[in-house]
Amino acid sequence: MASHIVGYPRMGPKRELKFALESFWDGKTSAEDLKKVAADLRSSIWKQMSGAGIKYIPSNTFSYYDQVLDTTALLGAVPPRYGWTGGEIGFDTYFSMARGNASVPAMEMTKWFDTNYHFIVPELGPEVTFSYASHKAVDEYKEAKALGVDTVPVLVGPVSYLLLSKPAKGVDKTFSLLSLLDNILPVYKEVISDLKAAGATWIQFDEPTLVRDLDSHQLQAFSNAYAGLESTLSGLNVLVETYFADVPAEAYKTLTSLKGVTAYGFDLVRGDKTLDLIKGDFPKGKFLFAGVVDGRNIWANDLAASVSTLEELATLVGKDKLVVSTSCSLLHTAVDLVNETKLDNEIKSWLAFAAQKIVEVNALAKALAGAKDESFFGANAAAHASRKSSPRVTNEAVQKAAAALKGSDHRRATNVSARLDAQQKKLNLPILPTTTIGSFPQTIELRRVRREYKANKISEDEYVKAIKEEISKVVKLQEELDIDVLVHGEPERNDMVEYFGEQLSGFAFTVNGWVQSYGSRCVKPPIIYGDVSRPKAMTVFWSTAAQSMTARPMKGMLTGPVTILNWSFVRVDQPRYETCYQIALAIKDEVEDLEKAGINVIQIDEAALREGLPLRKSEEAFYLDWAVHSFRITNCGVQDTTQIHTHMCYSNFNDIIQSIIDMDADVITIENSRSDEKLLSVFREGVKYGAGIGPGVYDIHSPRIPSTEEIADRINKMLAVLETNILWVNPDCGLKTRKYAEVNPALKNMVAAAKLLRTQLASAK
């Protein structure tokens, strides 16, 4: 019985790649230094899998930024603005596409399906000339082989690549991206030929778009693509991998009929209905890669249940054709539980990070082969029994409060137009009010203070004094820049979800449970293991301290329940919506305490609401109903004069605009500039939005500083589709990843642009 891993985390157990990337971008280390760190990490990963007994070990899943961007480089599909003139794509061009540079903006970044990972969206059109411009896949296969590890090279499949792309600027939005299939297949053929020549016997194509609702034309593209590659693939075993959801029946038929394909990989954790399709009809003589170990969560696998599933599948396809696998890449989990020294033993026994999931995969494969490790399986069963019976998981008062939510839609009593009038009388803001999203740069000194406080190296008084000094600096800077609605900069927070989770019951935290979000950006998701409640106020102290430093409105800054849920590792013993309602009640308590303390503007970020949207249309309405309801619960009890803001970023919002309206926030700030102002198209199409709205005027994930004229041009585009009295001016997202040398001039230009437009609008009356 064989075993397989779809993909593996890249950052390293202690975020080694993150620090190497940032050092390289800052000019402190060379390209060779960066490459050495990367090579050491790859070597360690391959040897770890090989040592654990994994048969099918992936290569080319490592990336300096993102696997879709790697595919863009592979195909030489570099947008003209980056000035690439051919040849092997180097770091300058690669990172300019990812991050922008001093003269040109970055490519669009958006969420990878329904995860918190981001990818760089390819920009394609009929004029793009494709060429084999990155030999990374072949180089990494050879690198592993030289270490004595035979790997399965992984490529983003040709059809998924095109379906995840967008028409380039200036290309008609109706342009069929799939019409480029015949243009990219020759490059794929070159890569495949090189891999065969290097000795590869297997190749994996990731085609995750097969889990979406695809039309017959899109499904036919898969048939055409693999028919076109069939002769080149001859002599190779070919695995087509899917993940994140069930494969629809029509897509399953297409997939299992593809020419030249030897094996099919399915997510049997989030795609449990796919089991029925497999049982109904699985092609004889083909391999089934059964993804029974969850690649998206950190709970220990229920080994007994997985063995039962695998034994049933073995009777259908034969043990010699069944491969035990992860449900998707382990990129979405933390790296190694061994590094967690502060988790208590009970909770730790319930968990499995990427390194432990490799062991689970191999243990399942051995069990099916008749070599079951009784001790390992026994410890696993004991851990599951412990979790089910642990008193720390259940809080009857919380469950009762959540159950009482039924029967109300928790809307504010007054409509948004009347509320905005009441708020304007109190706040007295100018037209086109300026604000930022919440965080300001997290300096080395600030991180040191937090680190030393957690390590008990400085006292609480010293910590509070240092944080207040940082807040004072941020407040003073915003006043000097003449920003209208201020933020305190969040110096007390390392992460917007972790900060709240640390103060809520039912959460556990890791020391090194980092997960890549994009590029060098890593997050440390909390673990929700039990019922959630708020023992005491979480932000009131810092928000009131900040408000006392200024006469201008100071936003109270909270993370919303849906985002806390979607950016955590969530318990699987109850429906997600029940956990979300519990979090919503906790945030509601905080909102009402902030209002009582005199905070008149409260932002409840729901950056991840769109991210959690199910991948199948039939499941969207139910999710949006409870997600939007959860947000409304948080603020349904505040006065009309209290202005509720929310924020969303880096997703495609146009398809859920009615649900955004239904959230009934007073003001929404939303990412816009990096996605080529895609958001504005929904308003051009006639959608009426009556609440305040601030589409981002510049991209904060790039070091590039936009000019006043560029920002003013963006605001004018917004004014063409939005009413003047509802438009806000703000960046795309929070500023924590930027440096003050970038933030200060960018915000100065933003405020100048707003003032310029105010003057022009006043003179036009």
Automatic annotation (TrEMBL):
Cofactor(s) the protein requires to work: Zn(2+)
Binding site for 5-methyltetrahydropteroyltri-L-glutamate: K18, N116, R521, C522, W567
Binding-site residues, L-methionine: I437, G438, S439, E490, D605
EC top class named in words: transferase
Cofactor binding, note field: Binds 2 Zn(2+) ions per subunit.
Cited Pfam families: Meth_synt_1, Meth_synt_2
Binding sites annotated in the UniProt record for Zn(2+) 1: H647, C649, E671, C733
Signal peptide segment: none
GO molecular function: 5-methyltetrahydropteroyltriglutamate-homocysteine S-methyltransferase activity; methionine synthase activity; zinc ion binding
Its EC number(s): 2.1.1.14
Span of domain Cobalamin-independent methionine synthase MetE N-terminal: 3-315
Residue stretches making up the Cobalamin-independent methionine synthase MetE C-terminal/archaeal domain: 432-755
Keywords: Amino-acid biosynthesis, Metal-binding, Methionine biosynthesis, Methyltransferase, Transferase, Zinc
UniProt xrefs under InterPro entries: Cbl-indep_Met_Synth_N, Cobalamin-indep_Met_synthase, Met_Synth_C/arc, UROD/MetE-like_sf
Active-site residues, as the UniProt record annotates them: H701 (proton donor)
Annotated Zn(2+) 2 binding sites: D662
GO BP, one annotated term: methylation
Reaction equation(s) it catalyzes: 5-methyltetrahydropteroyltri-L-glutamate + L-homocysteine = tetrahydropteroyltri-L-glutamate + L-methionine
Domain of life: Eukaryota
Family: Belongs to the vitamin-B12 independent methionine synthase family.
Stated role: Catalyzes the transfer of a methyl group from 5-methyltetrahydrofolate to homocysteine resulting in methionine formation.
Protein name: 5-methyltetrahydropteroyltriglutamate--homocysteine S-methyltransferase
The organism of origin for this protein: Cucurbita maxima (Pumpkin)
Source lineage: Eukaryota, Viridiplantae, Streptophyta, Embryophyta, Tracheophyta
